[in-house]
Amino acid sequence: MFDQFDPVVLARAQFAFTVSFHFIFPAFSIGLASYLMVLEALWLKTGRAVYLDLFRYWLKIFAVVFGMGVVSGVVMSYQFGTNWSVFSTKAGPIIGPLMAYEVLTAFFLEAGFLGVMLFGMNKVGRRLHFFATCMVALGTLISATWIISVNSWMQTPAGYAINAKGQFVPAGSWLPIIFNPSFPYRLVHTVIAAYLTTAFVVGGVGAWHLLKNRANAGARTMFSMAMWMAALVAPIQILAGDAHGLNTLEHQPAKVLAMEGDYQPSPNGAPLILFGLPNSAEARVDYEVSIPHLGSLILKHDPFAPLSGLVDFPRENWPPVPIVFWSFRIMVALGFAMLGIGLWSLLARFRRKLYDWSWLHRAAILMGPSGFVAVIAGWVTTEVGRQPFTVYGLLRTAESHSPLAAPAVAASLIAFVIVYFFAFGAGVYYLLRLMAKPPGSGEPPPAPMPQRAAGITPAPGIVAPAGAGE
Fold it and tell me: pTM value?
């Protein structure tokens, strides 16, 4: 039945499906861990019960998200051996140690302090519990650092040599491998994306409960904090994306040209193609809607700077242009929509209507899942744009897969689809039920820790002035 399918295409589809499911959970847990750290810090500093209520509210959600991320991530490692054994053999001496460092540093740090963070509020001192929360947040960032380093090396390989067996091995120091040319740009872009993803989930949940009860202190606080993040960080993300794009143009020009739809060279300045239908067979964008010279202004900071076209590269090295073209536009459009929500919230805040403008709240609810869509669109842009290579310019995807027949890969792909939709569908349903409950003081406050027993002084109950944090 599946004999007529290409096993490489099926293996790529399986990896894309599983990593798309996995990616949404780290994108949420990275930002949520830092948000929990901020909430607990504010509670310790001010003593305001609303911060403790929100900490407990989102802690339950974080626990579920973290668990789903761990489970979905386990599958990724196995696929390197089952579907991509040639890639594992050739790139393993570099990829393997980096992924092992992620487990030895980040995952052990997260797992070691997660239990204290989840269950230790009434068992350890408040400052020790806050330290555990900080370590979990730090662990998520360290995990992102190693994983982005691995993927960035595949995008912009550096610091390697090729031994007699055809394997990529370190040429000397590991520093050029870890801190490869695209790593800092991609790390900043990814971490900020995780923070914005979390901010819009928190903002959407806060807006949902504000529409039901504008007097709910927890809803007001979480919505205010989320909108501050949107207003302040969305512009930074756009600037970070621009810097990342310039770096990509330097090291992966064909990817950027596919993103822009620039099939033909532009010796007098490239237009910015807003919309159209990429036609790779004819090397043009049909029904093009563009702005003259703006493409060169963005990519070269000079409206008349010449820009190459995809036709300047061998056609066999072109990425799938339509996918990259549209995924990039989805990501950019959502980024500017996030900026728009942030600016709208600033206007509402300036007019003292942040908790009263119901249309702003409805828009925030609509934008709640936008971060997940944006990070998946960004991932598709990055990974599909790297094709037809697994290690850019050095190892082709068609040469990286395991010698498996199409039916074997198709069977595992179908199994993954069925299991993932049932298992993770149930998890997402449970998360939505948790978010549907209004934040409030549903639990007794943590027991005070005696100074002698805990070794610390309990956090003072300072009452913040009305409107603090808004």
Answer: 0.88
